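Dataset card, provenance and construction

Sequences and ligand SMILES were collected as paired inputs. For each pair, a complete structure of the chain with the small molecule in place was predicted and serialized as structure tokens. The example below shows a pair involving flavin mononucleotide. Curators did not alter the output after generation; any descriptive sentences attached to a record were derived from the structure itself.
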Amino acid sequence: METKKRHSRVGIKKVVKQSWKPGNVLSPLPVVLVSCGGTRGWKPNLITIAWTGNVCSEPPMVSISVRPQRYSFEILQTTREFVINVPSVRQLKTTDWCGMVSGRKKNKFEEMKLTPAPALKVSAPIVQECPINIECRIQQSLNLGSHTMFVAEVVAVQVSTSLIDKKGRLRIEKGELMAYAHGQYFTLGRCIGDFGFSIRKRRKKPASGNR
Ligand SMILES: Cc1cc2nc3c(=O)[nH]c(=O)nc-3n(C[C@H](O)[C@H](O)[C@H](O)COP(=O)(O)O)c2cc1C
């Protein structure tokens, strides 16, 4: 009886859950169009990536994880640069297609009628049609197993002017961005709170008599 008590989990309630084998169920994720090439003899190419994220604030850094079998992998290894183009729902079909077809066989910019526009700091082109373009320089490569994670510094950012309001603020909702979860694409829906709202004191409404 004594022993059982010592091993029992304190403060944890028993609930009914199904046990799944370990896997990549973390959701939702961004889904992005990574452009690379445009230098050292490589034509510009695109690869759809869901294994991506912010990994450091100062300096701003991101990561993308790429299988070595991808054509883009060879380009990334030699050029050490890429652009994360954040697509809007308007580029949904393009985003999926670029993740189904290899740049070894097709020119994805031409086939999808996308505009390769100049980046500010890297040789890889940005995708003009995507509302947000994040220019990156690779700092580290980590071979993790099936994927190699490229950790890269963000060296420039371009944002479509249609997302910026009169006061110069970024209105992210205007980008009509999307999410990827368990093999499916989703729209983002409406904003339901902002950073720190849970501890912010609500401003008292002036009593109607005081107006
Ligand atoms: C939604 C989606 C997400 C993907 N995420 C990744 C990823 O994170 N890493 C990766 O190596 N491949 C990923 N792929 C697969 C590549 O985009 C795909 O193999 C592509 O055709 C490679 O192009 P490339 O050979 O021109 O480089 C994803 C595909 C889709 C459709």
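Derived descriptions for this record:
The radius of gyration is 22 Å.
The helical segments are 2-7, 71-79, 92-98, 108-111.
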